[in-house]
Amino acid sequence: MAERLLVRALKGGKSVKIVTLRGKKITKMPSILENLPGLKTLDLQNNLIPKVCPEISTLTQMTVLNLGNNLLEEVPEEMKYLTSLKKLHLFGNRIHRFASGACDGLQNLILLNLNNNQLKWIPEEVNRLKSLKCLSINHNQLASIPKELCFLENLSELQLNYNQLICIPEEIKFLKMLQKLLLVRNNIDVLPEGFCDLLNLRILDIAGNVIQIFPPGFQDLQLREFYCEGNPLFLKQPVNAIKKEEVWSLQNWKISRNLQLVPLQILICSHKCFNQRGHNLFGIVQV
């Protein structure tokens, strides 16, 4: 079946723009794809492909490549030749590393999906993906985020759910365009103060971490959705305010249903409210 579809596509030659071969039990990427120089979209999802063929490097006009749910073990080096590529789907493989130079030519890439793989680290070269807007690496084994990732100035969505992250780099403050950040089910115990510089952030989900307190300035974020259930909030003894004045309000945020109180480091209201100060002190706001 796959062979017949390819033969049909080859008859179209340069005019062929889309090839879809989903779930055909293909075990080897067809090398004859090089005869389709005008190809824009190649969909090989749900097959048994362990590596890409060298001939894919000739598809320089391709904008969408879907290799999801195959048997790849690395982000292939051949990706660097796909200079027009905008969307790259590599979810559901066995990827545990980036091949050297894989990011070099992907200056037009806007979406990269690496969900459900085995990545333990992200290379520093990720900062070469200058146009990237959406990066999703859910359900991997990441223990850290390279600071270089934080210099992707066009990034608006970052998904890192279900990894093994223990911290977020202070450099995250440079992701000025970030609107959606998902960090569900990691081991993060603190958010850096630079986090509060993400003034375009609208959706934040940190459910299922080990965060006890939020950094000063957190109340300045213009969030529309905020989820933090499953964190050990209020294990420390809060400081009592002398009087209520200019109290932080979350009434415009869509939040976790069971969230009634939020601990904020140092201050949540004016300087007149507390009779104690210190970096380890925090107040509570009622939602």
What does this structure look like?
Mean pLDDT is 86; it is low at 242-247 and 267-275. 32% of the residues are buried. Strands 1-2-3-5-7-8-9-10-11-12-13 form an eleven-stranded parallel β-sheet, with no helix packed on it. Strands 4-6 form a two-stranded parallel ribbon. Strands 14-15 form a two-stranded antiparallel ribbon. Helix content is 4%, strand content 16%. The protein has 287 residues and is mostly beta strands.
C-alpha-based Rg, rounded: 23 Å
The arrangement of helices and strands along the chain is HEEEEEEEEEEEEEEE
How far apart, in Å, are the first and last alpha carbons?
59 Å
> Level of helix content?
under 10%
- Uncertain runs: 242-247, 267-275
Strand content: 15-25%
- Structural class, please? mainly beta
Total of helices: 1
Count the strands?
15
Lateral arrangement of strands in the main beta sheet: 1-2-3-5-7-8-9-10-11-12-13
Largest sheet: 11 strands, parallel
Shape verdict? elongated
Q: Averaged pLDDT, please?
A: 86
